[in-house]
């Protein structure tokens, strides 16, 4: 990220890059006093970020490792969690929620959820309710028992069934998508005409 691309605004900028969370803070209204810090993603993964400026490039690859914008090449420091919370708390709180996905599994040959998956419905409704303007994607899948057309219809039946179960969330129809992948995109690769419970599923993604 070239230092001269940052303006002196005295505000914070939050961005994601290369599977890492990159935070840039303009501290005193001057790019020379701004810094970049690398923090882990929510799942604990950490990428690498190359920060380029007039003095050369500095690679950040450790958790909470930072460098000054416009600073000396290779000069890094570790930023405390307290300082990150103080400097970026508001920006982090305002960042959009990540999509969350759920997998619901079905009994063989129809649109009847397993008991364990039925118990997941309240969690999906809670996730939808936690978002100001949710979008929901519902994709139905089947195992490889039966023909292509039959399974495409079954996958759509399952997707519609789940759509009915989340109606209590009162999402506008244009914010819910329903589709079927039938016996394509198997979770577990199997030969044709194989009854695999993990392939009989509906994937629900809430954004």
Give the arrangement of secondary structure elements.
Elements: E1 12-17, E2 20-25, E3 35-39, E4 49-53, E5 56-60, E6 65-68, E7 77-78, H1 81-94, E8 100-105, H2 115-118, H3 121-129, E9 136-141, H4 148-165, E10 176-182, E11 201-206
Parallel strand pairs: 9-10
Antiparallel strand pairs: 1-2, 2-3, 3-6, 4-5, 6-7, 8-11, 9-11
Defining key terms:
207 residues; 4 helices; single chain; 5-stranded antiparallel beta sheet; alpha+beta; 60s Ribosomal Protein L30, Chain: A; 4-stranded mixed beta sheet; disordered N terminus; 28% strand
Structure description:
The protein is an alpha+beta fold and 207 residues long. It is 22% helix and 28% strand. Mean pLDDT is 85; it is low at 1-20 and 26-32. The chain has helices at residues 81-94, 115-118, 121-129, 148-165, and strands at 12-17, 20-25, 35-39, 49-53, 56-60, 65-68, 77-78, 100-105, 136-141, 176-182, 201-206. It folds into two domains: 3-94, no CATH class; 100-206, OmpA-like domain (60s Ribosomal Protein L30, Chain: A), CATH 3.30.1330. A hairpin with a 2-residue loop joins strand 1 and strand 2. The chain has a five-stranded antiparallel β-sheet, with helices on one face. A four-stranded mixed β-sheet has the order 8-11-9-10. It starts with 11 loop residues before the first strand and ends with a strand. The chain is elongated, with a radius of gyration of 23 Å.
């Amino acid at each position: 990220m070239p230092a001269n691309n940052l303006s002196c605004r005295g505000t914070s900028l939050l961005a994601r890059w290369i599977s890492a969370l990159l935070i840039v803070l303009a501290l005193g209204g001057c790019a020379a006093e701004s810094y970049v810090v690398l923090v882990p993603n929510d799942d604990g993964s950490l990428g690498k970020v190359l920060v380029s400026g007039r003095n050369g490039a500095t690679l950040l690859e450790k958790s909470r490792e930072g460098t000054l914008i416009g600073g000396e090449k290779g000069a890094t420091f570790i930023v405390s969690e307290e300082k990150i919370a103080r400097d970026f708390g508001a920006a982090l709180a305002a960042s959009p929620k990540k999509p969350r996905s759920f997998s619901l599994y079905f009994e063989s040959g129809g649109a009847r959820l397993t008991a364990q998956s039925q118990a997941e419905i309240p969690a999906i409704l809670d996730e939808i309710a936690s978002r100001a303007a949710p979008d929901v994607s519902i994709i139905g899948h089947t195992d490889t028992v039966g023909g292509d057309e039959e399974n495409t219809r079954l996958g759509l039946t399952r997707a519609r069934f789940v759509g009915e179960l989340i109606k209590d969330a009162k999402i506008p129809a244009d914010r819910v998508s329903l589709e079927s992948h039938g016996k394509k995109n198997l979770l577990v690769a199997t030969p044709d005409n194989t009854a695999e419970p993990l392939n009989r599923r509906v994937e629900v993604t809430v954004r």
